[in-house]
Amino acid sequence: MRLEGKVAIITGSGRGIGKATAVKFAQEGARVVVCDVNLEDAAKTAEKIKELGGEALALKIDVTRIEEVEEMVQKTVNEFKKLDILVNNAGITADAKLVKMTQEQFDKVISVNLKGVFNCGQAAAKVMVEQGNGVILNAASVVGLYGNFGQTNYAATKFGVIGMTKTWAKELGPKGIRVNAVAPGFIVTPMTEKMPEKVLEMMKEKAPLKRLGTAEDVANAYAFLASDEASFITGAVLSVDGGIVL
Ligand code: NAP
User: Residue 195: pLDDT band by 50, 70, 90 thresholds?
Assistant: First the structure.
């Protein structure tokens, strides 16, 4: 098992990619703190992990609230005595064309996808620096590599997440902490269910592998980057997109 004995926090793990990642990490031997703004969903993920014989703690956390984020890290350390891995997965969309996007749509996405990643990364890094080791993984997107129609706010956050990933890799590398990002393409989750079927079909056709991704495709990439197999990899952005960016 690749994550035997590790302790991982995964934000937004009540459903979608976060849930698949939490289950995968548990199957690889990690003890998982399942965090989501929706406690019912977080509890379901934790229950699934326990049914599979793993160990999990479910917490209700809004990543935009620094006091809740600090409490999440504190509870993790109290319960499991350390923090090895943070997966900054929580993210939202609120799409509109530039001329129609409201202040509220812009601010909401910035707050969760960018400030939330900053909040969790900073709180986790404080513990990891003290320990002298750790791994931080951030959810970017192909949209953070080439932009996307109707996603001014979302693209800004994902380009920003890549910027933070590279900055943290430089700052934290000497402290024994690796920081990487995963850039998923179009993955079948509740987030993409909101997209028109026509657009998803188009994305499928555009990708050389001719399919949409699964949450497990992304979870597998996170598991690799979290593991010691990736011990010389930092500051990287790993595309998990069926080749759509080529
Ligand atoms: P998802 O199905 O919408 O799941 C996101 C989870 O995050 C939900 O459980 C959601 O809770 C939770 N969440 C939302 N706001 C939060 C907050 N403030 N604090 C804590 N948790 C919060 O999304 P997904 O498709 O799995 O995507 C996961 C990540 O991958 C996101 O960062 C996304 O941008 C990125 N990504 C996804 C795709 C894709 O094609 N799906 C592609 C590229 C990148 P609620 O249930 O209450 O909303």
Answer: confident
Does ligand 1 have an atom closer than 6 angstroms to the CB of 127?
A: no
Domains, the chain, with CATH or none? 7-240 (3.40.50.720)
| Residue nearest to ligand 1 atom 32, measured at CA | 91
154 part of the active site = yes
Nearest to 31 by CA among 89, 85, 88: 85
Question: Whole-prediction pTM value?
Answer: 0.98
Q: What ligand 1 atom has the least distance to the C-alpha of 158?
A: 34
